[in-house]
Amino acid sequence: MGIKVCKFGGTSMADGNIIRSVAKIVNSDEARRYVVVSAPGKRFSGDIKVTDLLYECSDEAATGMKRSEVFSKIRTRFLSIEKEIGMDIGLEAMLDEIEWNIVSGAGKDYCASRGEYLSGRIMAAVLGIPFVDAADVIQFKADGSLDESTYSLMASVLKKYPKAVIPGFYGKGVDGKIKTFSRGGSDITGAIVARAVKASLYENWTDVSGFFACDPKIVPSAKCIKELSYQELRELSYMGANVLHSDSIFPVKAAGIPIRIRNTFRPQDEGTLIVDSDVRNPEGNVVTGIAGKKDFTVILLEKSMMNAEVGFAANVLKVLCHHGISFEHLPSGIDTMSVVIENKYLEEVSLDDILQEIRDAVHPDYIHTRESVALVATVGHGMAESVGTSGRLFKALSDAEINVIMIDQGSSELNIIVGVDNEDCAACIRAIYREFFG
Length: 438
What we know:
The chain is an alpha/beta fold. It is built from 13 helices and 17 strands. It has helices spanning 16-27, 50-62, 69-85, 91-103, 108-127, 149-158, 186-196, 230-238, 249-255, 312-322, 351-362, 389-399, 425-437, and strands at 4-8, 32-37, 164-167, 170-172, 178-180, 201-206, 211-212, 224-225, 227-229, 259-263, 272-275, 289-302, 327-329, 336-342, 366-379, 406-409, 415-421.
């Protein structure tokens, strides 16, 4: 019997009653031996995630505040969970220590990680199995990337425990301090554990019954995808389909471990299986899924004989690099080039300053910006083998009277990305869905 690693998201840890349901899920299958948990999420609309409250605490501590009303909310939340599970596991003392460390300057990453830490303590107590602190088994390099020695370290530690709970989202940096992954990083922790223990399956439990062909909030009748590839998942996740952190794919993909998305609140549902493209079983659809992401800025450059000017693109990108800005896409023609930038990179940098630096660097004939742009990705391995896919897509957008600002298609023909106005994003997704899914 193979090993299954289970990761449970914030909604699965929201209160004591749900946590008891999670324990039943884990105990219903002996193969589920290692459990990774997130911090408690929202219990209802308008509720606040514990991690968001912890970030507020960190901001307060940075101002020198010694007593936090926000931490009082966190304390109440966790003590309520302890009461709901009907166990005294010593959370009061843990919370006292955490609050003291926060006001004593333990740092933002330490603060943000404590939701997962306490969730892990709770889950381990409910299941009656050991707790393994992620700080003892996950190591980061000085540049913030994962240290590959993590896999052997974790394997050697977990080998001692037939079953264990590991908190997600964090590990330890080279300075010995707590360091977190990017937001949603508990998915990454789960994938790392799966690879370290050579799992046969990585189960990611959330509040939806799988991966949908598009956001059900946009198309309520959206089809649930039975199976998709790691590559398709990464494209869709990166473009806003937030069922799974896009970076969590890499550890399991390298080891050929499939992922299954499951619903904590409907454990009887089959969910979605994610596998390598070589073993994927296509369902017959040309398109696998559609996802959109808003708030991009496009910088359009024109210059005669641009194609003959060695280093033109490199000099443009040096300007962005100087300001720590990453570009999303770089569609180009013989005398034109567009640079697509996510707006978050422009919050602390003046766009006018960037444009002027680009003018000084490459002396374009024309430079123009288009703001409030959404990118919509249509993804599927079947597109490369189907004649007329792009024609169908653009006809659907034309029929819906949606103006396409930009087009970008990868060389692998795995996706077609169009840029539209922010306000047209949902309509664009609906039009494409209707064309390919009916």
